[in-house]
Amino acid sequence: MVKVETIVVGELQTNSYLVFDDKEAILIDPGAEPYKILSYLEKYGLNLKFIVNTHGHIDHISGNDEIAGKTGAKVLIHSEDMPMLSNPILNLSFEKDGVMKKPDRMLMDNDIIETGNIKMKVISTPGHTQGSISLLLLDKIFCGDTIFAEGVGRTDLPGGDSKMLIQSIKKLLQFPETTRLYPGHGTETTIGKVKGGIKWFLN
Q1: Gap between the terminal Cα atoms of the chain
Q2: Is the CB of residue 4 less than 8 Å from the CB of residue 180?
Q3: Which among 9, 15, 71, 151 is placed 20 to 30 Å from 32, CA to CA?
Q4: In this predicted structure, what is the pLDDT of residue 150?
Q5: 199 vs 22, which has greater pLDDT?
Q6: Residue 151 Cα distances to 133, 183, 199, angstroms
Q7: Phi and psi, residue 40, nearest 5°
Q8: At 79, phi and psi to the nearest 5?
Q9: Helix, strand, coil share (%) of the chain residues, nearest 5
Q10: In the chain, beta strands by DSSP E
Q11: Bridge partners of 25?
Q12: Helix axes 34-44, 64-71, angle to 10 degrees
C-alpha cells in the first residue's frame, strides 16, 4: 500500500511529500530542513530512490544536495527548470554559493517515475515557472505551486506566465472532482473544491 507523509519545512512552510510503500520512497520538494526529512526516512526504514522537484525555486529544492548525498537518491526536475538548480538569481536564493545538485534525470511531460509499488506520471503544468510539473499518483496529484486550496501560483517571478498557468490549471481541472490535490503550500484539497474558487482567474 502506497502512503503519503506531509512534512512541512522552512520559513515558507513548504509541503515536502514523502511517498512510500513498505521499503522504497520518492521525495517531492525537499525545500528546507533536510535533517527533519531524513529523520522520517529513518523512522520508517525507507530506501529513498528519487527526489523530484515540482519546480526550481529555492523553497522546493534547497534540501536536494544534502538528502541526495546521504541517501544516494537521484534528483529529477523538468528540463525547462534545470538551469534554476545552479542559478541563484533564477531560484531566488540570491546566494553566491546557492548552487544545487545537477539533476540525474531531466523530466518531460508524460514521463513515468517508478519504484517499488509507486508509479507516478509527470504532467507538465508550466506557468508558475516554465518547467513546473504536477505528479499523478492514482487518485492524487502533487501540484507544486500551480494551484492551492484557496488560490493559484504566482506568475510575477522569473519564468512566470499567467496565460500558461491558466492552461495548466484547466488541464488539472479535467481530472475527476474527487481527485485529491497536494499543493506546495497550505492544505490538501480536491479538484471539486477548487473549481468554484478560481473561476475568477480562468475567465
Answers
A1: 40
A2: no
A3: 151
A4: 84
A5: 22
A6: 17, 10, 10
A7: -70, -40
A8: -60, -35
A9: 25, 30, 40
A10: 3-9, 14-20, 24-28, 47-52, 74-78, 105-107, 112-115, 118-124, 133-137, 140-144, 147-148, 151-152, 180-183, 189-190
A11: 20, 48
A12: 30
Is pTM beyond 0.85 here? yes
Tally of residues, the chain? 203
With vertex at residue 26, the alpha carbon angle to CA 159 and CA 65, rounded to the nearest 5 degrees, is 60
Task: Using pLDDT thresholds of 50, 70 and 90, give the confidence band for residue 43.
Answer: very high
In 3-state terms, what secondary structure has residue 155? coil
Q: What does the alpha-carbon distance between residue 42 and residue 48 come to, in Å, rounded to a whole number?
A: 10
Residues paired with residue 124 on neighbouring β-strands, in sequence order = 133
Among residues 36, 114, 29, which one has the least CA distance to residue 77?
29
Inter-residue contact 97 to 90 (CB < 8 Å)? no
Non-local (6+) Cβ contacts of 109 within 8 A are 122, 123, 124, 133
Cross-strand pairs, 119: 114
Mean pLDDT value across residues 98-105: 76
Asked if residues 85 and 119 have their Cβ atoms less than 8 Å apart, the reply is: no
Average pLDDT, the chain: 92
pLDDT > 90: percent of the chain: 83
